[in-house]
Amino acid sequence: METVAVKKKKKEKPVPFDYSNYIRKGKLPHIWCPGCGHGIVLKSLLRAIATTGRPNDDFALVSGIGCSSRTPGYVNFNTLHTLHGRALAFATGLKMAKPNLKVIVTTGDGDALAIGGNHFIHTCRRNLDIVIMVYNNFIYGMTSGQFSPTTLPGMIATTSRYGNIDPPFDVCKMAEAAGATFVARGTAYHYGELEKILYEAIMHKGTAVIDILDSCPTYYGRFNKYKSAADMMEKIEKEGTVSVKQADSLPLEKLEGKLLRGVLYNKERPEYTAEYAKLVEKAGGSKPK
Amino acid sequence: METVAVKKKKKEKPVPFDYSNYIRKGKLPHIWCPGCGHGIVLKSLLRAIATTGRPNDDFALVSGIGCSSRTPGYVNFNTLHTLHGRALAFATGLKMAKPNLKVIVTTGDGDALAIGGNHFIHTCRRNLDIVIMVYNNFIYGMTSGQFSPTTLPGMIATTSRYGNIDPPFDVCKMAEAAGATFVARGTAYHYGELEKILYEAIMHKGTAVIDILDSCPTYYGRFNKYKSAADMMEKIEKEGTVSVKQADSLPLEKLEGKLLRGVLYNKERPEYTAEYAKLVEKAGGSKPK
Amino acid sequence: MADKKKKFMQGNEACSEGALYAGCMFYAGYPITPSTEVAEMLSVRLPKIGGVFMQMEDEIASVCAIIGASLGGAKSLTATSGPGFSLMQEGLGFACIAEIPCVIVNVMRSGPSTGFPTGPSQSDVMQAKWGTHGDHPSVVLTPATVQEIFYETVRAFNLAETYRTPVIVLYDEIIGHMREAIALPEPGEIEVIERKKPTCKPEEYKPYAQSNGSIAPLAAYGEGYKFHVTGLYHAEDGFPTNNTKLIGEANERIVNKINKNADKICANEEFYTDDAEIGVVAYGVSSKSAKFAVKEMRKKGVKAGLLRPKTIWPFPDKAVNKLAKQVKAILVPEMNLGQVYYEVERASKGQCEVKGIFKVDTEAIHPNQIIEEIKKFT
Amino acid sequence: MADKKKKFMQGNEACSEGALYAGCMFYAGYPITPSTEVAEMLSVRLPKIGGVFMQMEDEIASVCAIIGASLGGAKSLTATSGPGFSLMQEGLGFACIAEIPCVIVNVMRSGPSTGFPTGPSQSDVMQAKWGTHGDHPSVVLTPATVQEIFYETVRAFNLAETYRTPVIVLYDEIIGHMREAIALPEPGEIEVIERKKPTCKPEEYKPYAQSNGSIAPLAAYGEGYKFHVTGLYHAEDGFPTNNTKLIGEANERIVNKINKNADKICANEEFYTDDAEIGVVAYGVSSKSAKFAVKEMRKKGVKAGLLRPKTIWPFPDKAVNKLAKQVKAILVPEMNLGQVYYEVERASKGQCEVKGIFKVDTEAIHPNQIIEEIKKFT
Amino acid sequence: MTTTETEKDLPRILIYEELCKGCDICAVFCPTEVLELKGNMMTVKNLEACTRCQLCDLRCPDFAIQVF
Amino acid sequence: MTTTETEKDLPRILIYEELCKGCDICAVFCPTEVLELKGNMMTVKNLEACTRCQLCDLRCPDFAIQVF
Amino acid sequence: MGYRYEMRFSGSGGQGMILAGIIIAEAASIYDGKMASQSQSYGPESRGGASRSEVIISDEEIDYPKATSIDAMLAMTQEACNKYNKDIKKDGVLLIDSTEVKNIPKGDYKVYSFPISTVARDELGKIIVANIISLGMIVELTKIVSHDAIEKAVLSRVPPAFLELNKKALQIGFERARDLKPLS
Amino acid sequence: MGYRYEMRFSGSGGQGMILAGIIIAEAASIYDGKMASQSQSYGPESRGGASRSEVIISDEEIDYPKATSIDAMLAMTQEACNKYNKDIKKDGVLLIDSTEVKNIPKGDYKVYSFPISTVARDELGKIIVANIISLGMIVELTKIVSHDAIEKAVLSRVPPAFLELNKKALQIGFERARDLKPLS
Ligand SMILES: Cc1ncc(C[n+]2csc(CCOP(=O)(O)OP(=O)(O)O)c2C)c(N)n1
Ligand SMILES: Cc1ncc(C[n+]2csc(CCOP(=O)(O)OP(=O)(O)O)c2C)c(N)n1
Ligand code: SF4
Ligand code: SF4
Ligand code: SF4
Ligand code: SF4
Ligand code: SF4
Ligand code: SF4
Ligand SMILES: [Mg+2]
Ligand SMILES: [Mg+2]
Fold first, then answer.
1. Does 3.40.50.970 match the CATH number of domain A33-282?
2. What residues of chain A score a pLDDT lower than 50?
3. CA E42, CA E30: separation in Å to the nearest integer?
4. What ipTM did this prediction achieve?
5. Rounded Cα distance, G126 and G128, in Å
6. How far is C46 from chain A (nearest CA, A)?
């Protein structure tokens, strides 16, 4: 899709995607700041959901607390906005009680990886069929800009005025090591790639983790002297990443300091609700009506 | 050392290691059940500490709650027996307040990886100079035998009477992905190898994680039809593992289903207290007297 | 000759039987002494009926999971003890504000912190009311026998569904591990209240609608209603609000739906209180010692009487106040250093002397200790 | 012309200044509105004096880290708000039983659960006493002005060291975010109590030794004493014990060291209470409204008086009881649905009417609301 | 909502005023510099140049712009 | 504590009765079958065979056996 | 009001004292139609150490489930015997396993001594059935439940493979107790 | 007892209303030797939405830090004006930014209207100094703090690079307010 941008004067009339089936009436504008990447991520998700062709009621969106975690409030699904860091625990209960729901967790780098780190690794371990979208903006946006477990060393935040010394997690590496069976990275800038990844994640049976590079111009941008929201997208999301497909053909020095985009890991392994169903059978039980 | 066992009639008079400098007077016998591997692990640790030649007061042993977490009560160091899962959080505070202490955390598979999973990954991420010994007996011993996040599928525990369906963590993989800079696996059976690993871990500057295969004959053993404590050591620790050194020269089929023993990962990366000291310098501060 | 209807079982087992009787289909928990048997038994029983047993990574996850499951339509339960109960407090508050029914069992052990894990106490009873931050409703039941654990667990589910709120079943290690023969009622023999689900059109569904104090039905996710649930203050439609008036009303409503129905939720056993001149207010295991003591005193002609709350929160203010009017003194034996004692003091309004009998050495209060105190007032 | 000694600052800033004044060298926390400024300021200031600022992965880790640091010899602090405070409860109990000094600040917001994060409330005041499981000591200070936040934070550290116990500083969002000019005392101007360290030989050191109620000195790790600390009940030497007598005594001791010293720990402001006929008991932000109201009433000749606890736990039973004897009624304005109100009711023992003025819409109680109520009793 | 003329074959660009927060993302990433921020509001400066590539819509975080 | 004779060059095997829990680990892993469990207590059955390899000590979880 | 019969089974963790209590309480309540409650206490590790199990039998609701004045007690170890003998009532019964208990406490009650563990090991080849032998003995000595009830209760609690063994243990208990005289 | 002067600064998040309150309170308390307290309230996100900042100035300890009866209020947006004008006292002052506030509320107080934002943008090239202009105006209109104090307070709160700009903004505020007449 990106390539469309360079073709000049291609004036066929495409129909813009209609979000109205997915956005709750009267809930826009959302609370996100001007230029906040969360809205772009949300739109990619909605298009991905549309592609599945499944009815809205088949989906549950669960979140914790944070700017990113405000996602569920705007969309027309079964939506649950919970406690900081605990989205996955709530989602686990919901998914086990209603295995046919497709549960998508929209969470932030703080929500998923700071306070919520334990639920993150355990959900991955179980390989429970949940899509985990980490809106990774390298900062705690909601509480006005403290460093997070993905903030890079040296960066400024309200609690790292001298430059951050905490090393960051590699979300994808962690997810894979913990047991997730679908691991990918996308960015808000690469909205189309992200949409495709999210579609695959939804179709995947098992825990799918997507590390989504995203931007908080209000805090991370301002503190770290990015000129604008677009500047952040350009530098962090576009120039800071390279797609797995391109990576093979690039010389090593071009890859340095860049994060890989795309599906990084994708394996089949028994999924938890399926395993549980077998357990029930073994115990002689059957799902009641 | 293992090889000594097969040399017959080697009757030189070795001096048995004297633990009395490290064991608190009057505290033995310990509470561990007959045949519990925790005692063997502890002894390896004490010999490793002795090798460093450092005085006892240089060491702090911190633990959570569990049978394994009872370790500190028996030994003559600065010892702290805390809350279930929180040993690393206490240890972090202690280490930062007194960076010269060598802090060793003795924890269980439940303590470190179930309830304590978040502190585990974050300590690794920071690369804080702490040794984390996971006494991994695949079960919650202290609470009488529920399955843990390392229990293998199919195994019986009091909460998995039909056979466990939860997939296990690979402790070493997780530790490395989270950022630990020294990652190793040992067993109680291979007491000598373990002692060496622990010595290296103590000398390492940064987070060192040792996954120690260990046995709980009382629950894991009894529920899963192991004949004795020795039988468990034989099957799980001896036959179930292969050392990294041997692994290279073994055919693939011999490695199947076996866990690697030895130092699996060892890298230098800035350590947290050292980075913090630099931060203090940058801020114009200096450690007060 | 065996009594077919009776089964000999442990308190914790009676709890899981009660849960199953009430229609519990989801359990999530993390092992902890002395509550673990509830989990262990349900791990065997639930799969047999297609229910879910989950051993979570910790207690925080456990309480969150049962709330999630409840939103999936399942009656759900977790069981824990002191340290785990402390960790569940934030989640408990979420269930309160979001009004999600669920049941939490706390088998009290000796604390604070790790304390003496295998020793009994009654020292979480104030925590059960005040443990989470913010003003919130509290419904806490304190059964005193194995049989009653069964009944009160069923009642806990019923109250949770009726009032759309978390309900806590609180008993101590002694009762949790004690064994007695109990009667398990046939299905239908005691009331089981099912969740009220909406019947309106999805577009019209307001999950927090208020019409003169009635409690809105709660849809399950995935059944066509697509509603929103949040731990932020929200309006009738479930969406967050900044309107301070609505915020104030929302908070009052969730607290008042319990307080205003206190009479319906409270349940006391009155034992020789009619003509009592010396009162004892006791719950749980201490009420057993107290009953023993009261019986002994009555044998000796002393007019002692026992008021035993089966619902400790909302607190039986009226019953205590009535007793205070009538007696010289109220004794409050508790396996703690004074908790319900303060409530009795409050509710008595200075009308009689109130004296605590406290014990925290992990041994049950001996009836003689109560007898001695009663004697002082004769 | 500028007043050199005065600095214009926020309540939360005054808190961090107080901590620094008291010698705090370690902060661990996790950001949460409306307490975050304490962390933000200390993240800049602590490194400048070689102190440690840690942003932990969550609040559980934060409270545990400050306890660990305290055992390393550092005076230590964490600050949080409702949800984080709920998560800290288990750790708080550990500090109680292991008797490790530390200070926890809770800047109250509107709850339960996420509630209305930027809105003030006073609804964690009962939780501050009862939030953790098991019987435990509670010391909770409730400053009401920016200047007082400074003083009370210093006092919190002093009490923590004196009694070897965690101390909670509890104020609300309004005071936390309010700005006033305050005077920062010179070093030495107000008392700072340092930790009593052992002077005996290491072999003789008993970290929990008891000689007629005195509190044992606390060594730091790595300074030659090599002692053991556990959250299990322990004997004088710090090692776990199964001895039920020792367990009971240990629990009573940690609670009584506070309760028996309540007179020393309590601190009240009495404002026109001498001849008051109508009393108001209020703390924190509501005491500001109350003071305004009392002043207004006095202008009108009405004999109103305010009792303002600066230490809310232990509760000032005696002062309230004394007031109750003297007045027709006590009003208790609180930004919650009734918490300290119950305590006032209890301590008043029916000697006067007790009436709550509750408000939970995240707006401060308006003085007129209190004035109206006072008028009803004139 | 402002909308550009649709006469002839020109694209129709809809900017929802009540939604646009003026972040400038659409303008910066528009390959043909069709858009321009005025104050806090996005506006169309050069409709002719529009290729209907939709990049503006796809990267708008606020559901505030559509091109037909 | 039981201790075997030390006459001649024979090893001296110390078993601390108050510590031994009779887990049998030392006996099972003794390469020369020197040890034998009797009831709940480890005993020496064949001192002659002892190579002083210390394996029994090193694998004893209970600090209960030493060989000199 | 009715009677209240109090029993205590004590020994070390793992000797089956809790099970013994459960079985006799079940015998009384399920098979003999009485009321019975069983409770226990143990150390912080829920393993090892002295352990005790208490049973109250009555013809009416049992309020207080712990022993107040003990009618009959079993002590399988010296530690348990020392720690728990205090509450035995006048003319009560104390049965000790003479294999383990060497110092016999002095009191106003009848002490019966028998080498229970030795018999279990030597005659039945399984030390773990010592608790069942003791049950037989206690029942015979106290007559608090019927032979029939205790047998049913025992058999309902043991795995099928061990039915015969336990039946035999119970019988041995009955028999040996029949002629046993209290120490004087 | 002394006087109590209440002020409210209202606008939308990001317009510097809280800073305006801080500066005037600091001017009063640090530079003019009075007592002052400043407080605020904002939405759940601590970003965006209507925001208000309140300042109480007095010659004695300030008990209640919130407005009860407002002496002077600033409204920079219509929303804020509508939401917060209620408590202005009789004969109080309301200053509105006429660039934004079109519907002027009716009340028993004096309303001053001035295109503050427009002037900030057009004359100073920086819309963000609108709050400083308003400060100058409010001070001029109310005389609640001295020119000297407010200037010191402003300059102590702004980065060095912006000293001149803010000085100028303040002066503009003083000047334009001097001849401003209330709407009638
Ligand atoms: C228990 C608890 N602790 C802390 C907070 C405060 N808090 C709310 S959101 C947040 C961080 C959000 O960061 P992230 O998840 O990265 O989301 P973002 O706002 O950046 O999208 C924090 C610390 C809270 N609500 N609850
Ligand atoms: C908050 C809390 N939850 C649960 C427990 C109960 N508990 C104590 S130890 C333990 C598990 C111990 O397992 P592990 O760490 O593997 O140690 P092991 O006993 O196997 O050595 C549990 C669940 C507790 N003490 N605290
Ligand atoms: S604060 Fe940052 S993350 Fe939050 S809405 Fe604003 S830009 Fe987005
Ligand atoms: S229960 Fe298991 S882990 Fe615990 S002491 Fe016994 S054998 Fe060891
Ligand atoms: S459709 Fe493409 S060319 Fe047209 S305005 Fe949008 S980004 Fe520019
Ligand atoms: S991207 Fe959207 S919100 Fe941003 S300026 Fe363009 S239309 Fe407005
Ligand atoms: S030292 Fe070696 S040979 Fe001797 S008893 Fe021990 S294990 Fe056997
Ligand atoms: S290994 Fe140790 S405890 Fe086990 S039998 Fe041998 S000496 Fe005894
Ligand atoms: Mg973030
Ligand atoms: Mg374990």
1. yes
2. 1-8, 289
3. 12
4. 0.97
5. 5
6. 8
